[in-house]
Specification:
globular, alpha+beta, Heat Shock Protein 90, 2 domains, two-stranded antiparallel ribbon
C-alpha cells in the first residue's frame, strides 16, 4: 500500500509541475497584456527619483546565479549618480525584460555587459550580449506585440513575444527611446536613452 501511494505521488509530480508552469505563464501573460492595455489608455506613472545605479546593481545581483550557471562573463559598469524621475516598478520591469532576454539568448561561456553613463542632459544605458543575435530583416519588428522571429529566437515556448513591446512602451512613457544593433551569431546591443 505504501509503495502504491509513493508511486502515485512520483507519477503525479511532473503533472503538478507542468500545471504550475502553465499557470505561471498565463499569469505573466495576463499581467503583460494588462500593462500594455493601461499604457494604451494613458497609464499614470508613479514618478519618484530613481537611482539606476541601485536598481541595475540589484537586478544584476538577482540574476547572477543564472549567469554563473551558464558561465557567462557578467559585467556592470555604471557612472555614479545615475538618477532620473521615473516609475520605479515600470523601470524595473523594463530592465528585467532586457536582462532576461540577454540571459536567454546568450550561450554558455559568452558575455553580457551593462553600461550606464550621463551624456549631456541624457542617461544612456546599454545592455549588450554576445548571444545568437537578430537578423537584420527582423530588427524593425522586434518591438511589435506578439512578434517572434523564426526558430533562431523562439525555441523556448514560454516566450510570449511581449517583452520587447513592453520595453518600448515603458521607455515611451518615460519620454525616452530604445534602439538595437545586432548581428546573427555575434550578439545584440540595446541602447536606452532617458532624459535626466
Amino acid at each position: 500500500m505504501v509503495i502504491k501511494i509513493w508511486m502515485a505521488q512520483t507519477v503525479a509530480a511532473p503533472k503538478v509541475e507542468a500545471i504550475s508552469s502553465a499557470s505561471n505563464q498565463m499569469t505573466k501573460l495576463t499581467e503583460n497584456l494588462f500593462l500594455l492595455a493601461r499604457a494604451d489608455q494613458g497609464l499614470n506613472l508613479q514618478l519618484e527619483p530613481v537611482n539606476l545605479n541601485v536598481l541595475l546593481t540589484d537586478l544584476m545581483q538577482l540574476y547572477k546565479p543564472q549567469a554563473e550557471a551558464k558561465q557567462l562573463t557578467w559585467q556592470l559598469k555604471l557612472e555614479p549618480e545615475l538618477f532620473l524621475s521615473g516609475d520605479r516598478l515600470l523601470l524595473t520591469q523594463l530592465f528585467t525584460n532586457l536582462i532576461q532576454n540577454a540571459l536567454q539568448y546568450t550561450a554558455t561561456g559568452d558575455s553580457i555587459n551593462v553600461k550606464g553613463q550621463k551624456i549631456n542632459s541624457q542617461i544612456h544605458i546599454e545592455i549588450a550580449d554576445t548571444g545568437i543575435g537578430i537578423a537584420s530583416e527582423h530588427l524593425d519588428k522586434i518591438f511589435e506585440r506578439f512578434w517572434r522571429a523564426d526558430k533562431s529566437r523562439s525555441y523556448q515556448s514560454s516566450r510570449s513575444g511581449l517583452g520587447l513591446a513592453i520595453v518600448k512602451e515603458i521607455i515611451r512613457l518615460h519620454h525616452g527611446k530604445v534602439s538595437v544593433d545586432s548581428q546573427l551569431g555575434k550578439g545584440s546591443n540595446f541602447t536606452l536613452i532617458f532624459p535626466r
